[in-house]
Each structure stands twice: as C-alpha cells, then as structure tokens.
Backbone:
C-alpha cells in the first residue's frame, strides 16, 4: 500500500511491546510504502477508512488487482483521527528490506489422518504426508533479537516458538504453537486449517507472509 502523505523516508518511532504489560518498548518503522496481509487487502474497498494498528486511520482512494494476484492500495493517513470504531483493523510492515527480517514460519499438523487407529489400518494409508508446512514471511526487524526457546505472539496471527536463530547461511525458524481452537485469531489465513489441528477434525510483533 502506498500512503500518499506518509514519511518520504523510513523513520523509526518508539512503541510499547505490549499495551497491558510492562515488557519494554521497540522501534517501529513507518514509511510511505507498507506491506499488508493479502487476506486483509482483499476485504478493503475503495473509499473505506481502515485502521493501521498502532499508527492511525487511513482512507483508501484506489485499489488495483494485478495480473499475478497481488493487490495495490493507495490511501492517505490522518494521524489526528482517533475514531477507530467500525473500521477494519490491519497489521502492517514498513516496506523497507533493510529494516525487515525474513523468517520461516513452520506449522505442524497431525502425523496421522485418523483419531483412532484400527487393526486393519495400514500405516502408509493413514500417515499425513503434509504434516509440516513452511511459509517464508517478513517480520519486524526486532524479531532478530529473540533468543532460541522464546515464545511470542505475532499480533492477529498466533503464538510462535523460536526454533532457530538467524545465522549467515540460514533464516530464523519459528514454529507455530497450536492453541486448540478451531478458528484463527483473525481473518489472516494459516497454511494448515485450524480445524485440522484439533484431534477428531477432518483430516505481539507484526508479520506479513505469502499465505
């Protein structure tokens, strides 16, 4: 999304890590160009007023869907508008590669496709060969500072466990922690249907991914 009256150059602003807990602060990069989750962009129409969470309200003047399925939005932001009632709330990222962190988000499903194994079942017939799905995504740069073993929340997406820290030859690996719920935290889609992570089914930082 292009914010026509946004900062001409990326600029950092201090923000709390959690609104209800004293966990310290982080630097959030703001810019004229930002990334949104595609699922959010699909729901936004021209003329709509949306809320860029932890920033301000933004009025959308143009929406364009490209041939490859990507969506481009254009809008103007009003930092004095504090009326967030009834607006679509979206998470976002400054579209500046120098301040982003590329991560691998891992989702794990059931190893078998049945709740109860019968004597007549052949293991090869009930093994879930797609129980591990990896999605490469952008995250705020501060995610690089998380230590191995840390559990944290991607706002509106879910909780993750730091399995591998970023090294020169490997991306940071984050494993999604199933919460047992049959619905996602928001409209943001996950690679594995949450209903599938509940046995018996059929078969706070920001992030933007290719889901």
Residues:
């Amino acid at each position: 999304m292009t914010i026509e009256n946004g900062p001409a150059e990326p600029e950092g602003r201090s923000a709390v890590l959690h609104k209800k807990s004293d966990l310290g602060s982080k630097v959030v990069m703001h810019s004229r160009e930002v990334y949104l989750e595609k699922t959010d962009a699909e729901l936004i129409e021209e003329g709509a007023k949306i809320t860029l969470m932890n920033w301000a309200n933004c009025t959308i003047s143009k929406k364009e869907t490209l041939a490859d399925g990507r969506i481009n939005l254009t809008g103007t932001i009003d930092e004095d508008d504090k009326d967030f009632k009834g607006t679509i709330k979206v998470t976002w990222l400054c579209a500046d590669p120098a301040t982003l962190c590329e991560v691998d988000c891992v989702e794990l499903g059931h190893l078998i496709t049945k709740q109860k194994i019968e004597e007549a079942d052949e293991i090869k017939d009930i093994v879930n060969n797609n129980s591990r799905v990896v999605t490469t995504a952008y995250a705020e740069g501060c995610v690089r500072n998380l230590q191995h073993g840390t559990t944290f929340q991607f706002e509106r997406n879910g909780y993750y466990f730091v399995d591998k820290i970023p090294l020169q030859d490997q991306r940071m690996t984050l494993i999604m922690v199933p919460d047992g719920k049959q619905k996602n935290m928001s409209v943001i889609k996950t690679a594995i249907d949450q209903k599938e992570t509940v046995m018996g089914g059929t078969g706070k930082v920001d992030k933007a991914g290719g889901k």
Notes: The longest strand covers residues 56-65. The chain has two domains: 2-94, 101-209.
